[in-house]
Amino acid sequence: MRKYVIMGPQGSGKGTQAGRLARGYDLVHISVGDIFRWHVQNRTKLGTRVQRYMNEGRLVPDEMVSDVVKWRLDIHDWRHGFVLDGFPRNAPQTEFFVESYDIDAVIAIALPEETAIARIQSRRLCSSCGLDYNLIQLRPHVPGVCDNCGGRLVTRADDTPEAIRTRLAEYHEKTRPILELLRAKELIVSVDGTPAPDVVQAEIRRKLKLVDAPGPANEPSAAVEAIR
Ligand code: AMP
Prior knowledge:
Elements: E1 2-7, H1 14-25, E2 28-31, H2 32-41, H3 45-56, H4 62-74, E3 81-85, H5 91-100, E4 105-110, H6 113-121, E5 123-126, E6 132-134, E7 153-154, H7 161-184, E8 188-192, H8 197-207
Parallel strand pairs: 1-3, 1-4, 2-3, 4-8
Antiparallel strand pairs: 5-6, 5-7
Helix pairs in contact: 1-8, 2-3
The structure holds adenosine monophosphate.
Residues 10, 32-33, 36, 53-54, 57-60, 65, 86-87, 89, 93, 158, 167 line the site of adenosine monophosphate.
């Protein structure tokens, strides 16, 4: 059983790396942002409550987040473990989490701020299947069209310049300090998020001592990314 958390600023490739790791080792990829986006898209009661926070780039209040994470982890649909992406993001969430779950490692992806901003601005999302693209490193074969389902590629509602600034400020103010807390517990595995996705993935696997395991570290195209 492997239980990992993946952290890093917006644009650091958390979702991409978590997806590859999960597919490679038969783990369940749990993205808190994806769960919230599903609720927004499907206009649920929770979706209506979280939409404003998300669009403004602010963190959703802790009690809503912890309820969603608890609900998701209680489903227990993994045999080999999970990669949790987007949680915890502040001190209260970390306390709740570290007390309740036995985590093997926290993968911390580092990225300079200007690279993060450039990447977020080039990010596109399929409006139909949710697949992630990046016009710098993970381009679709036909511009504006999803390789996986033919859906229309759109910009994420929270990828506006203002929301990007708020999200990065939230990350530096609230999320980065918890890395120190986790480092003290010797859970942190740090990787540089600047190189190409294949290189970052190989480094993550090497640092987690997973090199001999079955799944490929590199994948052929954006089409197989992030089908969660
Ligand atoms: P992400 O897809 O991880 O960038 O998350 C998108 C948005 O969902 C964030 O900007 C927050 O508004 C919200 N969100 C995701 N995870 C959390 C969390 N752990 N705590 C609070 N808000 C979150």
